[in-house]
## 1
Amino acid sequence: MAAKPTEVLNIPPYANWTDQGWNVRFHGNVYKFPDISQSKVDDLANVFLIDTSVDQLPDNQKAQARNLTRSIFVVQQGGENVSMSLEPAPMQGGDGEPGGGNSVEAPGGVQNLTLPYETTVEGDFDVFVPIQSNGLLPGNETNNVQRLNVYTNGTMSGNATAFLVPSEGITFISDIDDILRVTKIYDPKEGLLNSFARPFTPWMNMPEIYANWSQTLPNNTHFHYLTTTPEQATRLYMDFIYKTYPGGSFDTRPLNFSDVSATLSIRMFLLQKVFATFPQRKFVLVADTSNSDVMKDYPQLAHDFPNQVQCIFLRNTSATDDTMWFPYNTEGFKGLNNRSYMFFREPNDLAGLDIVNGQCLNETIQQNVTFSRQAEILGIHGDSAGGKLNSGATIGFVVALFAAVALSL
């Protein structure tokens, strides 16, 4: 292993403006690829597949399954010093194009730095570091999100884009599975195939909705993508987002399992970190009803930060996918302004909303929120589901991922 090259997963960071200047949250993982034969990789990949195997997949799906499996079964490198090089990141096209968002090329910022702490035993690094200005626009004097390329020194794999976010504006925090792409994590067989083998596919015309937001909302709009998929498996997610949706920062599940409470509530932990980092910004939260964490955490944030949560948009998977048989719980929304959130059925339901001025509800979309457990496809509109049915369809998907992670640690 000592002779193997060091690889780095550099997750696209966000930065906030402080009295000391720009403060960038660098986070990611350092690892090495072990020597594993293709036959062994196939055996490991088959753990994630139901009623099929790698050798039965089309060639392009075989390649994806093998590459993703290799990225999961890596050897994390603890005790490593990580150094970065920063420079202005040019736009990749016109306003609002995939990979661009509302951000602009930073007018400065060229510099090198070393993170103040070594990687954890799991190879993780996650730290806010003040950077030199070197011509960057101050965050309290610009309405533009600025982009910086971030290169991890000593490897070709650790490249990312940092987003320097002004103190005020709107941040979209978006889940990815079953809201930005077709995953069907509530159907274990389909969910695993869609995640490990099949090319990522946008959900309906959702890219058009995000492109319109990127093009029409103020320049201080920031996009942040949050998935609780373990970080080893997220390169595909980041590649998909940057080819399909406005560019933005990322959060994913780190490998540090030492804090059990944080591990079990990782979504809320990451959400609270973003809210605390940008106390003057408004947030638009986007996800779907099949995620039990979202159904609990999103309304809780609205209760805890009533002046910061601008809108909550949730795709009603129970009403739009006949394979989604698991009830979702709307109890957390009780007491919230019923015009501050919307359960929608298709992307076009989001079109034309005046989000900046707080219009979160499309009056033509019937809501039927019971403030209890409900499921349209099963005709459950109250407490009749009891505690027997929940988002258990995701369990097989998550357990398979964690089995792989546990084996690789």
Note: Residues 170-217+281-400 form one domain.
## 2
Amino acid sequence: MAQVLLIDDDPLFIAEQVRQAFPTDSVKVAANGADGIASFRSARPDVVLLDLQLPDCSGLDVYEELRALDARVPVIFVTIAKTADTAIEAMKRGAFNYVYKPIDLQQLQTTVQEAMDIALRMRAPVALQQSLPELCEDDTLFGTCPAMLEVYKAIGLVAHQDVTVLITGESGTGKELVARAIYQHSARSKAPYLALNCAAIPENLLESDLFGHEKGAFTGADRRRIGKFEQYSGGTIMLDEIGDMPLALQAKVLRLLQEQTFERMGGNETVRTDVRLIAATHRDLQGRVAEDKFRLDLYYRLGVFTIHLPPLRERGDDIALLAQHYVQRFSRQLGRSIRSVAAETMDRLCAYHWPGNIRELQNVLKQAVLRAQGVTLLPSFLPPLSDRRSTPPPPADPPPEVARRPAPASCDVERFVNERLITLDATDLYAQTRQYVDRFLLTATLERAQGNFRIAAGLLGISRQTMRGRLRALGISVGHSVELDEDA
């Protein structure tokens, strides 16, 4: 449970609300800024809830003091002013988030949990181990194969150099662990760190999330928002799956890398920042460049220093090393007493081709530990595995003939996902599911709008340009579309 420090001059009402959201013994209360700073010094909390209006000083001044002591502790501001000018200023200085009084307990719990997740990533050390330690840590890069030794060497070479790093490798190989190891061994290790998955955020929200927006920039933008590049100035941001970033947004990222400046959506003010960017992708970026899906100039900017993570099937004896590690880890987590892995079990694990890499290995071994009886992991405890050895994983992008098939008559997402989870042969299930849903949604909406792009885009809540781009990406061609006069 997170240890929460509440700095607020209303010790009765606000403190009572916070204690409803979290166990009483996990919440410490300070009634003014001086006491809050002293409490922060004596016992470093996991998260700070800070009132913007304190009796002895400004909440922003207290925030600067806390940030000087440890910038990795996320600070969530509590404000009663709906104009949010000071809250926005706090976000510009690097605060994690802000909530309004009276406090919405569900929103508070969600915000604190998000802050804790990011704080754990900043603090949890990523160990680089060539052999299996007696006690296994959760966040460890193991390996003795030559390719992994090169990865360790590359991390050591680039960590202290304040340059952009591109991490490549198939899904599930541990790219986020490498990014965190670079951050933790860098000169910015005491500053904030954030990892964002570009493929997991809808296209129309990604730009706002990264660069922020001004009030009125689009429908629903009722106040200014500070983006992550501004909020995490001085720190490190990892953009995972950057190969899936829209082309229009790639241009803004390129400018950020070149000049460390940008404009918020809907604004003209040039914002200056200081962020180290680490990018990761499972895509073949050179191939994406050839297909006009990725900017060549951005590719060169990102590739100042590249680290490639090998797929698990090419790591030889590392499979056995990792298997021992995860069996120990899951046995401890699940309260089992497994002490060894049978030779036949290890043979099966080493012979498998692991299209899902380490993530799939974790999934298989967790299932096996749950099914296990006794102290030895037998082959019968393993879920079904293919007998193939070196079959490459399925391509990240569906072939043209698949992409051009007619849209399904119905959209059964649960069936679609379960079919792929059963076989455990998907390495990009998120992308596959998104394509499956988009194919049905876009074609059904266009049909309902009788081919009118403006009406269809309005129903979807996206721009016509975004819709056309998504149709092209899915390989869907529209033979005839009805457009209104203003479209011409």
Note: The two ends are 58 Å apart (CA to CA).
## 3
Amino acid sequence: MSIDWYNWISLIVRWFHIIVGIAWIGASFYFVWLDNNLESTEEGDDADGHLWSIHGGGFYHNRKYMVAPEHLSPNLHWFKWEAYFTWISGFILFFILYYFGAQIYLIDSQKYDLSSMQAIGISLSMLLLSWVCYDLMCKSALRKKPLIFAVILFIYLTGIAYLADKFFSDRAAYIQVGAIIGTLMAGNVFWVIIPNQKKVVSSMIAGKPVDPSLGAAAKLRSLHNNYLTLPVLFMMISTHYPITYSQPANWITLAAISLAGVSVRHYFNLRHTKRTKDPFIFLAMFFMLVAILVPASLSVSPDLEKVDPQVTIEPKVMSLIKKHCVSCHSANPTSDLFKTAPKALEFDSAASIKQNAMTIHQQVVEYESMPMGEIEMSDEERRVIDNWYKSLSKNPDD
């Protein structure tokens, strides 16, 4: 019995990551919605707001105390493990796919010729330094100017996306930025939101005055997390859509789609308030058009003769790719089925074939779902692809 432990472990970690991520995102969306829909309490009531709601056949009455209530229940519910496990599982998945398979997925030698350790070191450094810079911004005077802060943060993260695109492969660049934003969000929970809430609870138990700035700082970081959620969700699924990250200047695509996500999130945050909200849906549509049209206008016809001389593919494998794949997966498909390469996967060069080796192996050998249609591929030909991929996994520098 043969078991593909690598893919099974990857599947389990990814599924767990999605489960805890949904729990974290759901809590974030709910509490921001709750904050935006609180009604004023009656005079003399020490609560800052309250809300009645109905769900699942029952009635709920929520009350919010910005500093602290006079009496605190011993059965206090905390929302933290969802965030912690989302980051931990995400980092494990990042390690399995992009660090363990750095030569295939993280590195693009046509952009920057890095060793596996160099690429991993740059990736980890970007995670750490991004948190340090963001945290300093949140503690500076900028925290009192939310609009200016948002603009600077957007420029900062777009700059990171630009640098990631210079160092890493196209798809890895998007995931790297997603990992950075996920680190900022989890760091907010671990280093600010939960510690501040613990200080508030400790002060109450000790009968000491509660510092209101602790709650304000926690709320600010929580609001940041809320707006960063949709952009990071897109980055999580971006690997399924090469049409986004394979574009020229793909950092522009990422920035525009992220702004669309922020606009959608802002619309829903304002949905039940009296503030103007409808323009933000049209703004999201505009940013999506920017994501589609701007990179397309920058595209140029690829020079199919331009191949990195350091990247070579076995003649047998190259012959099979040309015979069975490039009629569809090419910059200029000759197949009647497609006008553009499916999923933007183009196998016109040795470098692109090597970079997509795992995908080719999965579709041709593991699932036998490719080539499609009437194009036949013998078992012997599939074994050639299998042996090539296994040798590549053992000797990624070949």
Note: Strands lie at 49-55, 58-64.
